[in-house]
Amino acid sequence: xxxxxxxxxxxxxxxxxxxxxxxxxxxxxxxxxxxxxxxxxxxxxxxxxxxxxxxxxxxxxxxxxxxxxxxxxxxxxxxxxxxxxxxxxxxxxxxxxxxxxxxxxxxxxxxxxxxxxxxxxxxxxxxxxxxxxxxxxxxxxxxxxxxxxxxxxxxxxxxxxxxxxxxxxxxxxxxxxxxxxxxxxxxxxxxxxxxxxxxxxxxxxxxxxxxxxxxxxxxxxxxxxxxxxxxxxxxxxxxxxxxxxxxxxxxxxxxxxxxxxxxxxxxxxxxxxxxxxxxxxxxxxxxxxxxxxxxxxxxxxxxxxxx
Length: 307
Description:
Layout: E1 10-16, H1 39-59, E2 63-69, E3 84-87, E4 91-94, H2 100-103, H3 108-117, E5 122-125, H4 138-141, E6 142-145, E7 150-154, H5 161-171, E8 174-178, E9 195-197, E10 201-204, H6 212-224, E11 228-231, H7 234-238, E12 245-249, E13 252-258, H8 259-264, H9 267-274, E14 278-282, H10 285-288, H11 294-297, E15 299-301
Parallel strand pairs: 1-2, 4-5, 7-8, 10-11, 13-14
Antiparallel strand pairs: 1-15, 3-4, 6-7, 9-10, 12-13
Pfam families: DDAH_eukar (PF19420)
Protein name: Amidinotransferase
Organism: Loktanella salsilacus
């Protein structure tokens, strides 16, 4: 099976040392849990889950660059995909974040590692848009089709249209924005809880796209790219079934997703994915209490390694 430009073979992950639910993001993240457990026990559970997940990815041939999230002021540091992304040709983007404490997650040592280990031509920093309240929270706000060059994005406070247009112009993507909400009318805060694009398939919470015409356009665009569209129910989305990422392992493509997400899929959906990728369930129930799952914990590296 040939490598796919959609699929990174190396990732950045940040292991949490002070994990908790971020009160600054709870207002518009309906996926966050109300937790009774606090303090060191919670942090230890999240740390252990993350360590086991990294070990499983490495066992399957992934190159994992791990950083330690030791700053207690950054409870969401375990989700690095929101503040930076990497792109073929040597390009890196740094993003404007809505929550003030999430802005503290940006780390020079991560960018320096990318420059040292991979061929980086330029770094475009959009964080200067934050004073104007123009936010674009990375590959949480956008789900990128690296093959067909489309940036799918749910309209939200964390996905500003001006910031999105700037990114798409700089990185040669076509923006495709659509509205999405749950059955209670609560808007979806990040696109990557609703959608995952693999090489040969896409997972999508189709019924949660609230504009019928736009839903058809999104589905058609994905199908025109040669992908099978696997429709996820709202119940499956609530179990993080859309928050997955396809990766390049030693023996072929992998779909990394949580055990929660895997258990929510039905056998026919699993069988269709398995035609293209090996499903790798990772158990991170404590981390999922913060409103993100496996996709959020992984920042894919789409850069050429230095020899």
